[in-house]
Every structure is written in structure tokens, then in C-alpha cells.
Amino acid sequence: MQSGTQFTQGLRLAMDNGPAWMVEAVRQVRYHVISSDHLFSPDNSTLLTGCPDAPLRSGERRLVVIDENVDALYGAQIREFFACHDIEITVLPLRADETVKQFDAVSRVVDAMNDFGIDRRREPVLAIGGGVLTDIVGFAASLYRRGTPYIRIPTTLIGLVDAGVGVKTGVNYETGKNRLGTYAAATATFLDRSFLRSLDLRHISNGLAEILKMALIRSEELFELLERRGPAVRADRFQGSTGDLAQAADAIVAESIHLMLEELQPNLWESALERCVDYGHTFSPTIEMHALPELLHGEAVVIDMALTTALGTLRGDVDQAQADRIFSVIHALGLPLWNDVLDDPSLLEAALRDTVRHRDGRQRLPLPVGIGGHRFVNDVTGAELRAATELLRRCARNVAQGAPAEVLVGA
Ligand SMILES: NC(=O)c1ccc[n+]([C@@H]2O[C@H](COP(=O)([O-])OP(=O)(O)OC[C@H]3O[C@@H](n4cnc5c(N)ncnc54)[C@H](O)[C@@H]3O)[C@@H](O)[C@H]2O)c1
Ligand SMILES: O=C(CO)[C@@H](O)[C@H](O)[C@H](O)[C@H](O)COP(=O)(O)O
Ligand SMILES: [Zn+2]
Fold it and tell me: The 3-dehydroquinate synthase C-terminal domain covers which part of the protein (predicted)?
């Protein structure tokens, strides 16, 4: 036999220089995303029986980690719900905003799991809050005993349409956005839009940014729906106050989640790094962390999308009328087109370098093609970024003055 030659007998490899084995396995994963409004009404049984993989029976107990602001608003109702169903809960209220999305917060959840003496399989931790809270709890649960089940109940729009439906967990580390994290599916996510009634409009817009992301890269229909009904649905906080608003809110949320899950399911562990759902997330991680706490996550994402729309326009992939529509929808949804961090071209170039490290040596930059399409490029230069920034600067100024963006390339 030649040196290094191998043959397999199941696990065992026969090598000329000693025994060796190769292990190969595929991990099956299944999780549920279930909508039900007013989850904590005493007569709503969705949390108890709605998920076949996570039944909750009277006499059982649960650890509940809840965003402290959500606790202040809904804690009494939540405690009453569990008491009414004879479920004993231990509650950890946690401050959860981007500035404290750090490993310390994960430690606090781990401490609570340990003190609770959580059962490895049968006592999923309940995470109730926005994307920050669910990312922290998901991370802690994925670490404890190398994986303890958890359930998400998102209370923000970003949580409902994005952070609550994928498998990524994580916290920021130093200047790195979500630099520490794991892939860990929650057994179930329960979507209750009624939580959005207490969310301020800035955070509704913040969630609309991620919905707009899905529209720009995947669906012209969703974009048109946002264009026609987005501002009214935003003002109504997705509460469906009239039949028409309810229909629009239902369609926007359901379509956005559906498109997201269509993208995630075949590539759940991100073995392929060309991900169109990374649109808006090339420059934004650096922009968001640099501007922290000035910009919310979705605001940083939308500035990235505005910049890359300008880039797409310069490349001829997005025509000027399409760019005009995109910029005016961003504005109409209460989102920014510009932030002064863009004044520093070296920041964008640093962001691109970091993205290249994150995407295994290539830019793999999703760029819009028209409205609803995309392609990946690897050849964006610093000069091109500067030209796109100048184009965006002019358009953003026009839009801020109430005028059309007037995306005149070469003007
Ligand atoms: N895991 C993922 O796939 C994924 C996807 C998208 C975003 N994210 C992460 O999500 C985070 C952003 O999430 P977010 O926008 O939900 O922010 P957030 O969790 O900070 O919540 C926003 C604010 O709203 C408050 N709040 C929450 N629910 C409320 C309610 N119903 N009424 C009133 N106030 C309420 C919170 O206390 C907080 O102050 C970012 O860190 C981002 O990285 C993760
Ligand atoms: O922001 C997030 C996840 O934090 C999502 O909106 C988004 O779809 C993607 O997961 C992002 O592209 C982020 O990916 P990554 O930089 O955390 O690897
Ligand atoms: Zn995002």
C-alpha cells in the first residue's frame, strides 16, 4: 500500500501509519414558528399545547428570562397566566439593549439556569423580549450542558420577523457585532403581534428595515405592499385596527417571515456564505458598533442598504427610478438614509475588510438587481464606495428636504 492510502470499513480507516477513524454525521433539526395573538390571555392555550415538541403542563415549572421593560409592561399579566395554569415560574428580568449585549448578560442567564437546576431536556427556558434578549438567552441555553432547549416569545418587530425565526444566537464582543455566538434553534417561537402596541414607532421602523431587506432582495410584491401600506401599518403598530390594516399587516409579516425561512432552511448552518439575507449586513455591523448607541440595528442595516442601492445604481443594476422609489420608501417608513459615520471612507473600507474575514476571504456582497432581485459581487473598490457615498449624500439631502431623491448618476 502507498503511504497515506486509506480505505473505509464503516468508521475505521485503514492507514499504513496506524489506526485512524473518520466520523461523519448529519444533525437533524426541527423547530416551530407559531403565530397567536394575546398569548398570555388566560383562555389562550397556544403556549401550553400549541407546539407538539414543547408541551407545557400544569404542575410543571419554568425559568422565564424577560426583558425588564417588557416585564414592567406585561409582567403582571404573564405571572397571572402561569399561576392560572398552575405552572410555577422563576423570573429573571434582564436589562436588554444593544449597549449591554455582552457576555456578562449571558453569564447572568447561565447563573439563573444553574440556580434553577434546570432539567436538560424537559424544561425549556422561556425568553421573552426583543432581539437582544432572545439572542442572549439563546446563547446561554446553547452553552449550558452544551445545549438546553429554549423557547422564544419576541416582543419587538425585529424579534418577530427576524431574530425570532432563525437559529443564530450571540452577543457583541469588543467592537465586533455578534462576534460571539452559536447556531442553536429554539424549540419554538411564538409570535404575538399584540406586544407591538407598546413599542415606540422608532422600533417599529427598526423592524421594518429587516422586512424591507427581504423585499429588496427577494420580492417586488412585498416592496410594493410596503410602498402602499407600510406607513399606515407602521402608524398602527401592526395592530390591525381596521380590516384593511389587518390584512396588510398580516401579509407583510407572513411574507417577510416566509421569504426569510425559505432562505434559511437550506443553509441553516451557513455552510454557504453567499447569503442574500446578509444584504444590508456588510457595512452595517461596523457602522452600528461605531455609532452605538446612536443607531439601532435596523437603522444601520438600512443605511447599508441605501449605500448599496447607490452602488447598484452606479453599476447600472438598479435604474434611477427604482432607486428613487427605494429611497422614498425608506424615508416613508421613518428610517434614515444617511449617518455622518459615512463621512469617513476608511470606516467603510475597514468594514469591508472585516466582512471579507467573516465571509471566508471574499466579499460575497449581495447587491440589489432592480427591486426584488440580487446578485453577489467580489470586486467592490474603495473608489467605488466613495462614489456611492457621494451619490447617497446628495439623494439623502434631497429626501430630507421633502424632494424626490433625484438619483442622477453623474450629476
Ligand atoms: N439572531 C438573529 O438572527 C437576529 C436577527 C436580527 C436581529 N438580531 C439582533 O436583534 C437585536 C435587535 O433587536 P430589537 O430591535 O428587538 O432590539 P431590543 O431587543 O434592544 O429591543 C428594543 C427596545 O424595546 C424594548 N422593548 C421590547 N419589547 C417591547 C415592547 N413590546 N414594548 C415596549 N418596549 C419593548 C426593549 O427593552 C429595548 O429597549 C440586535 O442586537 C440584532 O443583532 C438578531
Ligand atoms: O441581523 C441578523 C442576525 O443578527 C439578520 O438580520 C441577518 O439575516 C443575518 O443573520 C445577518 O446577515 C448577520 O449575519 P452575521 O454577520 O451575524 O453572520
Ligand atoms: Zn439584521
Answer: 207-354
Which tens digit of pLDDT belongs to each residue from 157-200? 999 999 999 999 999 999 999 999 999 999 999 999 999 999 99
Nine-digit cell string for 78: 404573564
**From 101, 168, 177, 213, active-site residue:** 168
Structural domains counted in the chain: 2
Range of the domain at 125: 32-199
The CATH number of whichever domain residue 323 belongs to comes to: 1.20.1090.10
10: in domain: no
Whether the ipTM is more than 0.95: the answer is: yes
The helix-helix angle for 201-218 and 220-235 (nearest 10°) equals: 170
Does residue 162 line the site of ligand 2, with CB under 6 A? yes
Residues 191, 224, single domain; the answer is: no
Which protein residue's CA is at the shortest distance from atom 7 of ligand 1? Answer: 163
Q: Which atom of ligand 1 is nearest to the CA of 207?
A: 15
Q: Show the DSSP H helices in 189-283 as ranges.
A: 201-218, 220-235, 243-264
> What is the Å distance from ligand 2's center to 50 Cα?
28
**Protein residue with least CA distance to atom 5, ligand 1:** 163
- Whether 304 and 162 map to the same domain: the answer is no
Which ligand has an atom closest to residue 67 CA?
Answer: 1
What is the rounded end-to-end Cα distance, in angstroms, of the chain? 70
Look up the pTM and report it: 0.96
Answer whether 372's CB lies under 8 Å from 219's CB. yes
Q: What is the pLDDT of residues 212-257, one digit of tens each?
A: 999 999 999 999 999 999 999 999 999 999 999 999 999 999 999 9
Chain-centre distance of CA 335, in angstroms? Answer: 17
